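Can you give me the bound-state structure? Components:
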Amino acid sequence: MIAPQTAIKRRTRPAKFLIVDDDKISVMAMQRAMRKLKIVNETHVCTDGQHALEFLETEVDKSGVLPPYIVTLDLNMPRMGGLEFLDAVRGNPDLSRMVIFVFTTSDTPQDIQSAYAHHVAGYVIKENPSDTLNAALDMLDSYARIVELAV
Amino acid sequence: MRQGHSFQRHGFAAVSSISGRLRAVLLMIVVGIAIAGGLAIAQARTILTAYERLNQSAFPMLTLAKRTESEMSALALVLNQLSISRTAPQIEMLRDKVDGSTARLRNNLKALSYHAVPAELITVLGQDLTDIEVLAETAAENRLRLIELRNSTAQALSRITALQEHSQTVLEDMTFAISQQTDTLLRSTRTSITISSATVDALFTNLFLDAMHVSNISFALDIAVNLAAAAPNAGNPPGDGRRLLLATQKLNEIINRVAQLPLGDGRKALAANLDQLRGLMLGPDGVFAQRAELLALRGQIGATDRISNPMIAEISEMSSGLVSRSLAMLELAFQELRGAIVNLIWGLAGALIVTSAAIALANHGIIERQFQRRILLLNNAVSAIAEGQLDHPIPISGRDELGDMARALAVFKKNAEELRRSNVELEKFAYVAAHDLRSPLRAIQDLSSWTMEDSDNTLSSESYAYMTLLQERVKRLNRLLNDLLTYARAGQEELEPETIDLISMVRDQRLNADPLGQFDIRYVGDQTEIAGQRMPVQQILANLLSNAVRHHDQPKGHITVSAHQDAGHLYLRVTDDGPGIDPRYQARIFELFQTLKPRDEVEGSGIGLAIVKKLVDRQKGKISLRSNPAICRGTVFEIIIPRTQASAEQMPPTQRAAA
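Here's the bound-state model for the whole set.
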């Protein structure tokens, strides 16, 4: 029941990045890489799942629709970890259609399986060092520009 | 004392053990069977006794009784025949028969006396038999005597008749003579007158007297003879006595008259005849005496008959009684036998039922409840725990082997739980270590590289060198961490065996071990496919190849991988032409953090071979190396891993020519 104008309008809504990670250096690495790749999308940082959840909920209340965030999610965080955040988000009808990429150091198959069980868009393993982050962020940039987000 | 205790304990253990209890059950069964057998044997003995009695006693007794009975009736018949027999040979024969009968009867009685016949009965029967014998003997003798008497009476009578005839003839002659004399006298009286009347009277009177005598004698003789000849069978004792008297009278009269007769041959003949007649008639053997004896005999015979018949009847009754008694005994013996057999059957049936019940009870009570159920529970528990369900309960207790096993299983379970817990902890630890250590490591790396990037040329060369060293150390730390993690995780998972293409695996690992492609790394061998777990094999190869490359002292070299797999084992070999490993250090190199060269010379965490060893150990295999730099260059690492059941069920690897 979406009118063609509305569809076109959505096409132009810019994607924003929400980085959920408690590691300051890790966030710095992401931001540095984004700078290098000249990614200019708006970026917000939350230090744990709880913060991120509250932030998103506030955004929903403000705009009434699903905020256009692409989330990069770390798994190991205090208070609310990545998987718990996924549980909360996927359980919340307002937020369940959010696009989430897991960015974590964990390479255990269990974590990968759990993440995909929560219907994440992708799973990226952060390596030491972070040089290879560029490729991942390049991919995110393309993703943000091409892929249509849900409402 | 001690021995007693240990025996007690031993004995107790023997009873409380499973086999002990089973043996107890078997013992019960054996005892039951023994008791049943004992009862059966006892019963069988009773049966045998009853049968013996039947065989040795009742039957023979019956046979004897029957024989006695039939013998008795035969005897009765003989006696009957005897009573009506007339001829002496007949009587003799019957007498012999009686003798034979009684002899046989006596034998029977003697034989019977050995059986359960009361002695008095035998004695009475014996006595009766003797009586009958006597009676029969008497009867026979009497009858014989009777016949004899009859014969002699007949003889006597015929003689008497002969004498009578003779005498009558003589008397007739005398009568004739007298009548002639009378005639003569009469004629002479007629013709002569000279004879005196007195003489004539006297002569006449004599003649007349003589004639009278003669006729009287003749008459009396006839009467006497008739009297003698009167049918002796019409025995009328008073009549017979009178006749004797009369006969005696008549004979006396005859004798008197004969004495009156004139002397002469006639008189002499008559006198002789008379004498004989007197003897024949009146004598002790005379007809009358004989007749009297005959009568007496008849009376005796009658009397004996009268006695013998009831006696025979009595004996017959007794022998019938014997028969019925022996039949009763037979019946009794049969009943006894039957009873014994029935008892046996009941006894055996009872024993069978009791034993079956005991076995069923034992089966349920002991085997089912104590063993089967517990064995089943123990089996389930063991299987469950082996499969990994470590919270499966072990609901078995007891003082026997099962109880011991259950307790041992509980210990295993606890150990397994501990192991699992520590494994889980280790994994968690490794996981946590990986994350919590890696993040700061990465941060250090990033910060240092950003510093180097951002600083452009503001860093002094010294600072720059420090930063570079910093980076290298961080990288080393990273590698160490990764290797530690790999070591911790090595062999944790049980993977399914796959068919591994060794040529492609070696080709892949080559890039990791020797990214610059300086060395000739290849697979050599006929068998290019093996069945095994991919990850461990890959890790082993990776480590061994990387070691071979890193420790090589020349810019170019050859490293070969070969493998061989048979039904029992997998043989893996990595050979290089490097400098070799001094035998002194060959044992140490498998330990954690052991390296052969300083870490600045050869980048290595010292964990690689430890990982390889851990993987090999986990698969219950063996790793060995051959190398002696003093003799020649090169090193050969050899790994032997036994095949698991699962890997043995893999399709046999195909043989392909070396690529």
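A couple of observations. The beta strands of chain B are 498-501, 520-523, 529-532, 558-565, 569-576, 622-626, 635-642. The radius of gyration of chain B is 75 Å.
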